[in-house]
């Protein structure tokens, strides 16, 4: 009997990509391949790419450079480039790296295994990019595909693809297309199936989750159905929380301009929805926010944040901030530092602005900020962010937190790592606990990016839920 072929998937970028990677891995497994953790052992290497920021391009073409010599040694090796960069660059991927076998876009993940087979049979490279996802075709929408989860206790669920906003710096609308929401019933069904497989934590994914369902309402109206504009995302949060077996619901990302009181109420009231809000600020300067087309001012942002904190007990807040947007002045940066300090984030992702060809901001070449100036501003921002992260973490010392156990810590196998409801990494000392189980841990120490603690108790699974989803019969 011949050995099955092995595949290796490397994911760049965001959680949307991690989810697509699980889909691609599921399809290859269904096709008889087996997963390996070693790219060097693999007969198929899949690079699931991101194009949000420039270093992702560099990383991809760097990795492809290494794979070229590997392929010269083993001509049977197949290389597939998937994801946003593939969708955006299309044939350019082959022009820059002719040894790639398949270039697969973001709208046709379902074709991964077939295209690899076709390319192998014909001995030629294939580029297949669609302009739009075919969402009303259940066989093709990603949810209908097999899937290989990274960990058995956590699942992603795409609730919406694409983005209808036009942030001046962002390439996402160009590569992921317009906003399309999946029907609530499909999402709840998918989460219920995951829960039956043993998943207890689900993360809902969308570029702008607060506008989830807007297109569904419009389509229903267009079809002459009586509809009112409903806060569908808030209802979805409650429905997903009501699924039996689900203990934690997370989501990313809401847009500050669209976050609604109903969403905040659902977070406050549904016990499964975790106390964590990732609310991308991008800039604290109103002038820059306007140039970015973000649709809010710093004051508005801080008001919404205060409302969320007032309603949701023990809310952790994280953010994304861009430094060096074209035209950014010293005053703008000062304002960003002030607003970031006032927002007192638990953690934050600061990014250096990177021009993405085809976006509005990329054309503002005459206003690009000098690299050294940007580097200095970036360091100053990091100081502010680390200070508030450490302060937020120190405030937790002495508290008892529930963690979802992930396994032994990478640095010290005698220490276990878990995630709190606020999505913080908590390293704690305890004898072995099963990954995927829940425990309570007393926090004894804090650092900007993690907490330390001691085991208090193991938490038993909760009883069956009596709440029923609101929307799904
Ligand atoms: N340059 C730098 N950062 C960017 N982001 C998106 N586009 C760019 C860009 N061109 C950041 C934003 C967004 C996060 C996912 O990536 O902060 O929220
Ligand atoms: Fe990009 Fe703005 Fe859409 Fe987010 S909301 S994906 S930053 S265009």
Write the topology of this structure.
Layout: E1 6-11, H1 15-30, E2 34-35, E3 44-49, H2 54-73, E4 78-83, H3 84-89, H4 91-96, E5 102-104, H5 112-122, E6 126-128, E7 154-158, E8 160-161, H6 172-176, E9 180-181, H7 184-196, E10 201-205, H8 214-222, H9 232-241, E11 248-252, H10 261-269, E12 276-278, H11 286-292, H12 298-311, E13 316-323, H13 330-343, E14 347-352, H14 371-394, E15 400-408, E16 415-420, E17 425-429, E18 438-446, E19 451-459
Parallel strand pairs: 1-2, 1-3, 3-4, 4-5, 5-6, 7-10, 10-11, 12-13, 13-14, 17-19
Antiparallel strand pairs: 8-9, 15-16, 15-18, 16-17, 18-19
Helix pairs in contact: 7-9, 9-10, 13-14
Bound molecules: 5'-deoxyadenosine (5AD) and iron/sulfur cluster (SF4).
Throw out a few tags for this protein.
473 residues; alpha/beta; Rossmann fold; pyruvate-formate lyase- activating enzyme; OB fold (Dihydrolipoamide Acetyltransferase, E2P); globular; binds 5'-deoxyadenosine; binds iron/sulfur cluster
What features would you describe in this structure?
With 473 residues, the chain is of the alpha/beta class. The protein contains 14 helices and 19 strands. It has three domains: 123 residues, 3-Layer(aba) Sandwich (Rossmann fold), CATH 3.40.50.12160; 257 residues, Alpha-Beta Horseshoe (pyruvate-formate lyase- activating enzyme), CATH 3.80.30; 59 residues, Nucleic acid-binding proteins (OB fold (Dihydrolipoamide Acetyltransferase, E2P)). The protein has a six-stranded parallel β-sheet with strand order 2-1-3-4-5-6, sandwiched between helices. It starts with 5 loop residues before the first strand and ends in a 14-residue tail after the last strand. The structure holds 5'-deoxyadenosine (5AD) and iron/sulfur cluster.
């Amino acid at each position: 009997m011949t050995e099955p072929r092995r595949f290796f998937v490397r994911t760049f970028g965001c959680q949307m990509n991690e989810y697509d990677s699980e889909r691609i891995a599921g399809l290859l497994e269904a096709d008889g391949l087996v997963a390996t953790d070693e790219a060097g052992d693999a007969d198929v290497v899949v690079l699931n790419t991101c194009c949000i920021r420039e270093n992702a391009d560099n990383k991809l073409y760097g990795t492809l450079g290494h794979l070229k010599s590997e392929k010269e040694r083993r001509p049977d090796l197949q290389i597939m480039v998937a994801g946003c960069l593939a969708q955006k660059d299309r044939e350019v991927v082959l022009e820059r790296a002719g040894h790639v076998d398949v270039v697969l876009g973001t709208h046709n993940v379902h074709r991964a295994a077939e295209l690899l087979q076709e390319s192998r049979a014909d001995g030629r490279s294939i580029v297949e990019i669609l302009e739009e996802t075919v969402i009303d075709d259940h066989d093709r929408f990603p949810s209908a595909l097999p899937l290989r989860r990274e960990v058995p206790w956590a699942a992603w669920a795409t609730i919406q693809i694409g983005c209808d906003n036009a942030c001046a710096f962002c390439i996402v609308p160009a590569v992921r297309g317009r906003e399309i929401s999946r029907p609530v019933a499909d999402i709840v069904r998918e989460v219920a199936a995951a829960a039956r497989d043993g998943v207890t934590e689900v993360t809902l994914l969308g570029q702008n989750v607060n506008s989830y369902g807007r297109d569904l309402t419009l389509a229903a109206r267009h079809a002459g159905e009586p509809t009112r504009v409903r806060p569908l995302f808030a209802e979805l949060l409650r429905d997903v929380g009501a699924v039996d077996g689900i203990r934690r619901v997370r989501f990313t990302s809401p847009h500050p301009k669209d976050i609604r009181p109903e969403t905040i109420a659902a977070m406050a009231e549904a016990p499964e929805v975790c106390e964590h809000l990732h609310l991308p600020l991008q800039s604290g300067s109103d002038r820059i926010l306007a140039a970015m087309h973000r649709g809010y001012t710093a004051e508005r942002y801080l008001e919404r944040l205060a409302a969320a904190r007032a309603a949701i007990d023990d809310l952790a807040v994280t953010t994304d901030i861009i430094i060096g947007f074209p035209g950014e002045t010293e005053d703008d940066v000062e304002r960003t530092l002030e607003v970031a300090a006032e927002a007192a984030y638990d953690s934050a992702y600061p990014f250096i602005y990177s021009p993405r060809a085809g976006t509005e901001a990329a054309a503002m070449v005459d206003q690009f900020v000098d690299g050294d100036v940007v580097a200095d501003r970036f360091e100053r921002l990091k100081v502010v962010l680390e200070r508030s992260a450490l302060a937020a973490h120190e405030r937790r010392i002495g508290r008892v937190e529930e963690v979802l156990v992930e396994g032994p810590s990478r640095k010290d196998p005698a220490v276990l790592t878990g995630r709190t409801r606020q999505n913080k990494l908590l390293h704690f000392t305890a004898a072995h606990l099963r990954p995927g189980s829940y425990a309570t841990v007393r926090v004894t120490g804090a650092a900007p990016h993690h907490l330390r603690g001691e085991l208090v108790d193991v938490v038993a699974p909760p009883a069956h839920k009596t709440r029923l989803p609101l929307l799904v019969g």
